[in-house]
Amino acid sequence: MSLLLNQPSKLCLRKRVLVRSSPLGSDSFSSSLQQTPPRAIISVSPCNYADEIGNLNVKNANERSVTHVEKDVPTEFTSPLKYFRFGVLGTIGSSHGWVATPLEDGRVRLQDDLNPAASYTDPKHISLPPLVTLPYCQTQLVTNMSMSSSSPEEEDCVVAIKFFGPQLSLCRPSAQSNSEWINIRIANPSFFSSRVMFSKRDGMFHIPGSGGHLIGSWDLGEHKDRPKIQMLRFHNLAELTMSKLEILDSCSTTEHLVESQITGETFLIKWYRKTTRSFLDMPKMKTEALLVFKLDEEGNAFYTEDIGDLVIFLSRADPFCVPASSFPGMYPNRVEIIDVDELGSVNLATGTVSTRNSTHMAPYYIPPQNIEH
């Protein structure tokens, strides 16, 4: 996969863009609105050769080249964080185009600076209350963050931060002065290293257990202290060859839940990677395979190599999926991936993994956005 990176501009030019988020395919806005394709954050180029401010380099999912966006962004967003951690510069997660950054006083700030479709002149910053660490827990290492709606400014939005270990913290940013974290201690160790996602269909935060055999669900109501636990039953595994299973057994595995707002389907993705060496003899994680399972409400997980017209996007941000036919140049039945060490795609029909080694300090995919010029 060839990526052509434009040279950084010497000047930081700005223009106004009005952003309105809406579900894909919504006709609630004027036809003058244009919807951006899914975008990957590739890097930040220094602006005027200053270290503090840079311009975004993004890759549209339906294009091969990298686009230079002349929007001022603090370069601290792309500090190298192999593991998201408080107390250092960088980001700890992204959801709906908003990124979460740690502050020195233990607070978390939500901001849309890395969203190339957001305002160029008036970036939004929302500070959340200081985190409280539960006894025998830690809040320094983070798996990810997730939001229940497209903007933390919405009244019903709930922000979730999942830490390595038993702590899950939920907060309503709209509460402002009355906002506080609701801290949940997770009892089952199979959820300690997993990622959290919000299900619009169920109105709950879901966490897949390690190995993908369990899904735990939490909310701010009756399931805050007593989560719903669903056990999955896997089907169609006979379609996997023994040679492929042997390769997968030697890999590091992470589990991801993705919900389609178009088809109403929920998918469990098992991401298999191995540690390799780069030309500088640095360890890199390389994708060996992806397995996709379609889930039903009874807890059946059907292995599939066909997700129809959908394209799934996996990164350090919330995973999401969109119809390929919505954006010319995108290919259906694919999983597009970006992580710290690689960028590429997986063809589910053939199982072909097409990735290249590259370094991304803020490896996030941003879902489609409605913009008006």
From TrEMBL:
Domain KIB1-4 beta-propeller, first and last residues per copy: 90-339
Highest rank taxon of the organism: Eukaryota
Naturally occurring in which organism (per UniProt): Brassica carinata (Ethiopian mustard)
Name of the protein this chain belongs to: KIB1-4 beta-propeller domain-containing protein
Entry-linked InterPro entries: KIB1-4_b-propeller
